[in-house]
Amino acid sequence: NRELRGAGHPGLRVVEPIGQSAPFLAAVGLARSVAGADVPVLIHGETGTGKEVLARNLHLWSRRAAKPFVAFNCAAVPEALIESELFGHVRGAFTGAGADRKGLFEEADGGTIFLDEIGEMPAVMQAKLLRVLQDGEVRRVGASRPSMVDVRVVSATHKDLVALVAEGRFRADLMYRLNAVTLRIPALRERGDDVALLAHFLLGRACDQARKRVPGFAPDALWALSRHGFPGNVRELENEILRAVALTPEGEPIRAAAFSERVADRAPPRVPARALSDGPITLKDAVTDTERRVIEGALARTGGNVSQAARDLGLTRPGLYKVMERLGMRDT
What we know:
This protein is an alpha/beta fold.
């Protein structure tokens, strides 16, 4: 299965990182600065934060961009097969080995190999991987001689490798070989208004895939997205957008009700605007209705960017949040 083995991607292209939050820009900036240094990089981040996307860009920003990028998930392959997958085998090395086969390190020669979920690497393979990093040599299973390879190693994990070392589950010498530079990708909940930026980008892609026109988000949908914690990070956000596009009628904006219940419940209660024709209305109620409509309009115009909406309204971001809490437009 060549896909399982992580064969190179001939159509690989840079996907420009989407985000304006300080922690995200810091991670991208560090990635750009070390891309050309040709040192091992360890990417740390929660599941779904986009570690492989950043690894691909590291490759494409480097001098190795014209060579293969090969990805391998250490947690997705049975332990007994990992050595053959990474280092290859010769004919007759084991039952079923009917021909010589390159491993992923040889396939990535001159380019980059991405080892995802490196914290799941079995102890025996950790020692063999360390030798590859130290000597630049791989030995196919059953071979009598090693082969030289020129490969940059980028690895990723959502686990604390230092803690794994302390528990005796990960080799300290391997950790130090892998993390010449460590990039930390922030969780989506730490990225503020990046949620709205990503939501619009993912909406465009989802509409292209579905061949459907969905002209943006209603204010309640953007607010629901901004209030959800997204434990599954960008991957969870993408799934929510795909679901919403499927459930939203052609030509209408996405409303909070189109999201899963855990996200839709974050939307503010819908309070209909009152008109003079409905009967007597107090000045306080009229002011409240007006404030709510003005804030919803500002959020709609800025694509859910709370910071920009606050600036447009002449408020600070915390100040806008306080007004929205008073109006029942957010959780307290």
